[in-house]
Amino acid sequence: MSIKRIQLPMTAEVVRSLKAGDSVLLNGPILTGRDAAHKRLVALLDEGKELPVEVKDQTIYYVGPAPASPGHAVGSAGPTTSYRMDAYAPRLMEIGLNGMIGKGKRNDDVINAMKKYGAIYFGAVGGAAALVSRSIESAEVLCYEDLGAEAIHRFVVKDFPAVVLIDAEGNNMYEIGPAQFRAEQAAKEGK
Amino acid sequence: MREIQAVEIQKAIEQLIYEASYVISPDIAKAVDEGIEKETNPTSRNVLEQIAENYKIASCERVAICQDTGMAVVFIDIGQDVHIAGGNLEDAINEGVRVAYRDGYLRKSVVGEPLFDRVNTKDNTPAVIHTRIVPGEQIHILVTPKGFGSENMSRIKMFPPAAGVEGVKQFIIEAVKEAGPNPCPPVIVGVGIGGTFEIAAQTAKRMTARAVGSHNADPRYAALEEELLTEINKLGVGPAGIGGYTTALAVNIDFRPTHIASLPCAVNMCCHCARHAETTI
Ligand code: SF4
Description:
Bound molecules: iron/sulfur cluster
Strand order of the largest sheet of chain A: 2-3-4-5-7
Helix content of chain A: 25-40%
Oligomer: heterodimer
Order of helices and strands of chain B: EHHHEEHEEHEHEHHEEE
Helix content of chain B: 25-40%
Number of helices of chain A: 6
Number of domains of chain A: 1
Number of domains of chain B: 2
Structural class of chain B: alpha/beta
Largest sheet of chain B: 4 strands, mixed
Strand order of the largest sheet of chain B: 4-2-5-10
CATH architecture of chain A: Alpha-Beta Barrel
């Protein structure tokens, strides 16, 4: 299995080069946020106000980590289910967000925005949270500290394991993967 | 009559939450390892390898298997000859939850009111408590911290009896298919058939904690479990939903008596992190 090492923030070239199904190791800074933080960011955009964090060319990880035990930057930190951010994600892509990390399906609005603005949806393995946390070298709260685990953090990650679930052309591993499996099984049974 | 101190129950709850949150049960780890052997697509296999590795890291380092350490669901069977002294039961359970989530570095994921405020209670209380009074003078406690990525993919339907085995089968398969990647497959499908609306759901919840590889004592239900597991694993959802053989590790079904007019069926979806631990006091 070939694995691409990706430097964050991603350039437009990198975004274009990634294809659904690619295994990658992400390196560099990422933002974190879940529903509550997204809601606040989009409320600010609605009011025409400036955001407390820069999202242009950034990658956001949908995660609410467990508390860090002594000696660790962060506790277990696997992905949360992404569809809860679907209502907000296109707004952030509109202002330049080009990467999202999560798990689970996205709706058509999100996929269309990804194609329009050029963004990648990465998947981290749900439930592999202790393993993922090992690739998080540092964590700091950027804003919304009152949200606790749901505050917006900046993580710096090293060789964070992920798969390209949906690429900037809209190719979707959640459709391609299972369909391929079923086709292979049908071919086997046909023999 | 046997006297059991409330603080003993509190301590037991605390320990069970640590155990469940850090250490996956061996039957699940084994089923994941078997999945690794089966998967032919390297990316799908790698997902399972990450899951297996994660179990090892979590138990060695005593950290949470998954960051969603869930709501603490507690099934407690109390012998009728037990007297709980030195405090009341619910307080003892909630205190155990409070201490475990604080001292065990577990995430607090409970909001006190669901619709308007949604303010975090900050200590993961209250626990969800299912109490039964049983014969004897012991207390049995089963703790199943439940993550909501999979909980949200659960469903229940009150079928007419005419829907029969076929209706129930389709409903269960459809639930797994529709959920796709969202509940962190490979999943454990807990199914409750019969009872009333709430009993079906509660039975399904209990079934998420039944060992992978075990079967219902009734051979008809055991056969149905096998058949559904095979059918579900033909869907191709696969590890993390990216395609493959390993969509579900188990379909665990139990049934309850029901009304002549109904055939309730509840599917409680659980991720591979089906955390549970039990003890008898
Ligand atoms: S569904 Fe399970 S494995 Fe997935 S994030 Fe939630 S608790 Fe973790």
